[in-house]
Request: fold
Amino acid sequence: MDLDRPAADAWFRRRGLPMVIHRRRRGAGMLRRSTPGLMFLCLLDLLLAGLVRLLDVPEEVLEARMRETGLAYVLGVLALTFAVVVVPLVGGRLMAKLLRTLRRTRVRLAVMAATIGFWVLVLPLGERVTGLVSWEDPLWAAVLVNLAALAVLMLLVRIGVGSILTWAARSAVAQVRAIGSLASRALPLLLLVVMFSFFTAELWQAVERLTPGRLWLVAGFLVLIGAVFLASMLSDEMKELKSWTVDPGAAVLRGTPFDDGDAAPPVRRALSKTERLNIALVLFFAQAVQIVAFGVLVFVFFIVFGVLILQPEVVTEFAGRESAPGTLLGVPLPVSSALVNVSLFLAVFSGLYFAASTATDARYRRSFFEPLLEDVKISLAARDIYLAHWADVRRAEVVTLEAEDIP
Reply:
């Protein structure tokens, strides 16, 4: 079989398995694959500077804005916050499509050079000229920080972090029905448990008196417990993958760069440590995306539920003192800080419960986790062919910016 090696490398990256690729070829087209991430950073930095400029005001000014414009000011801040999350992702995706569309190497190089120049010099200078950032912050320091960020980004692209996260997010979104199915059954039962905590004054008093740093420390502790739980579950799944083989004549690679008709598959090669880590990270992040989505759903539920059922005087009685206006990651919200903190705590706790449900719920496993495993098995079958085809290659091919690599 005559394999197209750049296409084979791109196929593994697209499936979140960059560690399968020969280590000398992992840097192929690295500048091209880094440019969408750099566009992401440009837009994120610009929007964050505007958001910080809007929120970094004295408390009396912020209170005056809340009194004068009220809901309109909050909605404007929330819209800008939403843009901070969405616009960089869209911009990075469009840049990736643009680079794949451009056929002339000089044009691609010009686009990449312009993006780098904008990030390193134009953006720091423009933020100071427009007033988004004060001139008191040295320009040279900002340029050095952006250069360091560019180096870190290229290192992450070299490792393949972007490929792993992109595939995990794509898989989680593709299986969104699974989270809807499980949430429709897990959420009612969960609410029966946490609803009693929501109306417990001791919980409100304990959470309200935590500093923001201490509250996030508690949330991080619960997240760590959930991560350890998922990691232990994945270790058992990895043992099953080691013994998996493709039946002769199986059509799992039909339509891929490794399609070889009905030829018998090559001998299974043992996974390296980096490949095992790569597969584990793919499975871990794919589940983590859905757990986070479930936690956000619970957070929004309790915020809305609290606004509807709790009067300000009841919140004051629960918390044991008058609660300040609520904020989340510096973004003001039209609710009390006590309600935000309690909702955040219950959302993280619910995410931990959801993580346990994903491991024990048979329907969730059939609808989401087993398809993930099937995708990994297909990748392992392709890996065997990939390694067998280039087993005797002693030197990596010369790669250029024209390699068909994806961001």
In short: The beta strands are 325-328, 331-336. The radius of gyration is 25 Å. The chain is about 75% helix and 0% strand. Residues 392-407 have pLDDT under 50 and may be disordered.
